[in-house]
Amino acid sequence: MPRGDRGRRLEGAGCDRAAENASFLVDAVVIGRNEGVRLIRCLDSMKRADLRRIVYVDSGSTDGSIAEAESRGVEVLRLDLSVPFTAARARNAGLDRLRRQGGVRADLVQFIDGDCELDPGWIGRARAFLQANPGVAGTGGRCRERFPGASVYNRFCDREWDTPVGEARALGGNAMFRMAALDQVGGFDPALIAGEEPELCVRLRARGWTIRRIDGEMVLHDAAMTRFGQFWKRARRAGFAFAQGYAMHGAAPERHYAAPLRRAILWGAVLPAAAFLGAVAIHPVFLALLLLWPAQILRLWRRDGDGPRAALLTIAKIPEALGAFQYLFARLFRRKARLIEYK
User: Fold this and answer.
1) Given the DSSP bridges, would you call strands 26-32 and 108-113 parallel, antiparallel or unpaired?
2) 3-state secondary structure 140-156
3) DSSP class of residue 324?
4) What residue segments make up the domains of the chain, in order of their start?
5) Which end of the chain is more exposed for a tag (fewer CB within 10 A), N or C?
6) What percentage of the chain carries pLDDT values higher than 70?
7) What are phi and psi of 268, to 5 degrees?
8) Third-level CATH fold of 3-225
9) Sign of CA dihedral 137, 141, 145, 148
10) pLDDT tens for each residue of 271-298
């Protein structure tokens, strides 16, 4: 049984029985820029879902995305590009639009990225679960890659998103949250260029909420990652998020991003530095330390049964370490972080 499928039957119990109860109103916020046909698929899937309002937040598209959204009767919000863009800022802008509308406010909000297609049964299942579990602030389901066979990097993403069902530390950019919970913590932190949703979950837990994944297909995601350079940038962005998240919430009890940051620094910086500096200053035998990398790949290969993924997990530690140092330098020299985009 795949790792992420453990416990799915148990966690999903009761959701289907409550699926007919639609008393909770659900709105949605879609964010995107130049997603083209992917946005069309996304919006069409949202229009078919049981949603009251859909707000599309566009961050400077030049490909006709705004016209496509308006033609489908979706509310469009053009993000002010005079202020640096972040996904957190775009989601907050969508939330603000929903809050400003008069009348009855929605109980729940579904966030979705413009390169994703919503599963037809997701809204009903997620709504039923949140209705039945009032202490849960947000929930997510299975996010799958649309074209896992297109590249080893797409397949890497598909495995990365296959996380266990049950209590979770984070959900990702595609998830359903209670509006009341988001109000309590002030939404997303717009200063974060990455890792904004895990950081939101840290603050929600501090208020006594829990986060849970449930059994159910949620979205098809089109990563469109076909080049090593894209993989490298994505990993560097993750390293930046690890360092920034740790700086914000690294203390106990959360220890937010402490483990992935430690692994990135150890494997991506300390090990190569020790090997090369030792070889130069003491003896070339120190270069043998680099053999720990292939040993780590073999260990992960044996554990997961996926050689290419094991190699990418190990290689990713180098750009992750670079991203962590990028955050450190930005903080030391008080420079604003720039968005790291891989596509």
Assistant:
1) parallel
2) EEEEEECCCCCCHHHHH
3) H
4) 3-225, 245-332
5) N
6) 93
7) -95, -15
8) Spore Coat Polysaccharide Biosynthesis Protein SpsA; Chain A (3.90.550)
9) positive
10) 999 999 999 999 999 999 999 999 999 9
